[in-house]
Amino acid sequence: MVEGVLEIDRVSKRYGEVVALQNMSFDVRGGELFGFVGSNGAGKTTTMRIALGVLAADSGEVRWNGKPIDIDTRRRIGYMPEERGLYPKMKVLDQLVYLAELHGMSTNDAHRSAENWISRLGLRDRRTDEVQKLSLGNQQRVQLAAALVHEPDVLVLDEPFSGLDPVAVDVMSHVLREKASAGVPVVFSSHQLDLVERLCDRVGIVRSGSLVACGTVDELRAGGTSRLVVEVPEAVNGWTEGLDGVRVIGSEGRRTVLELDHGVDDQVVLHAALATGPVHEFSRQRPSLTELFRNVVTEERTA
């Protein structure tokens, strides 16, 4: 597998007066898991469809290894749509073989690959069943197998974890990590932000058709406020008053959660805490991706 880079470069798309995408730009590197997150209607699916050539951009360009994506390149992309894209009355094995052949595989190679992914994704007992007779979770597994069966160079997955039970989530997570380890750029959207935080090397947050934040979770955390958990058993209420850029956002007994503006020195807070008496806890609380995402959405609604 040759590593490459998928680039979304200043892509814009309008539907009449509605701006679906505006100068959307990011890249997904070989061997990287990239999480693409945003509210419903933010532009995630539109971006993915343009990357696949299902939709045409009004402006901008999608490139693979520095070259505009063409029909041959698209055959090397594994795409998993959010909505079901399978033939409901076709048997699982027959469908996967057919799709692999459409992507240029020989019949023997298609059968070999289909059987491999059927086994890997826990579908061996369902290989001769019609897709419409499977549970929604197993249909999702078949959908992933359809994206993988032709051994793609790029994976673009729209809500791949939707409807999966915890065991299936673990199986899919392992497969995505394995493909990334083999040098495949993997981009997927998801509303399950705990999974995105756990799996992804980088995360892009999209809002109203534009990418508003991009980086590792640690990098995204560094750009905002920080939090401290302080336990001061002898402190009186209001002990943080007078500390500029420090807000109390939660408390339980004498354990207080503080939010600090960017640039505020936590040692100033420690000094104030020690002035009240003994300090039993003084630790930094790392905001989750869910909290970071919520802050971005809140900024949009209050702007």
What this model shows, in words?
The protein is α/β, with parallel strands linked by helices. It folds into two domains: about 5-220, P-loop containing nucleotide triphosphate hydrolases (Rossmann fold); about 225-285, Alpha-Beta Plaits. The protein contains ten helices and 14 strands. The protein has a six-stranded mixed beta sheet with strand order 6-7-8-3-9-10, sandwiched between helices. The radius of gyration is 24 Å and the shape is elongated. The mean pLDDT is about 90.
Task: Give the topology.
Layout: E1 5-15, E2 18-29, E3 33-38, H1 44-52, E4 59-64, E5 67-68, H2 71-74, E6 77-80, H3 92-102, H4 107-120, H5 136-148, E7 154-158, H6 166-181, E8 186-189, H7 193-199, E9 202-207, E10 210-215, H8 217-222, E11 226-231, E12 246-252, E13 255-260, H9 266-274, E14 281-285, H10 289-302
Parallel strand pairs: 3-8, 3-9, 6-7, 7-8
Antiparallel strand pairs: 1-2, 1-4, 4-5, 9-10, 11-13, 11-14, 12-13
